[in-house]
Amino acid sequence: MSGESSCTLILRRNSPELVFSREGFKDTMPQTPPFPGMCGSSGYNKNLYQTKEEDYGGLYYHDSNLASGSLEALIQHLVPTVTYYPDRTYIFTFLLSSRLFLHPSELMSKVRHLCVDHQRLSDPQADKVRIKKIAPKILQLLTEWTETFPYDFRDERVMRSLKELTNRLSTGDELYRKTAQQMTQALIRKLAALSQYEEALVKISSTVTDRLMVLKNKPQSIQRDILTICSDPFTLAQQLTHIELERLSYIGPEEFVQAFVQKDHLDNEKTCFSNQKKASNLEAYVDWFNRLSYLVASEICIPVKKKHRARVIEFFIDVARECFNIGNFNSLMAIISGMNMSPVSRLKKTWGKVKTAKFDILEHQMDPSSNFYNYRTALRGATQRSITAHSSREKIVIPFFSLLIKDIYFLNEGCANRLPNGHVNFEKFWELAKQVSEFMTWKKVECPFERDRKILQYLLTAPVFTEDALYLASYESEGPENNMEKDRWKSLRSSLLNRT
Question: Is the full-model pTM beyond 0.90?
Answer without folding.
Answer: no
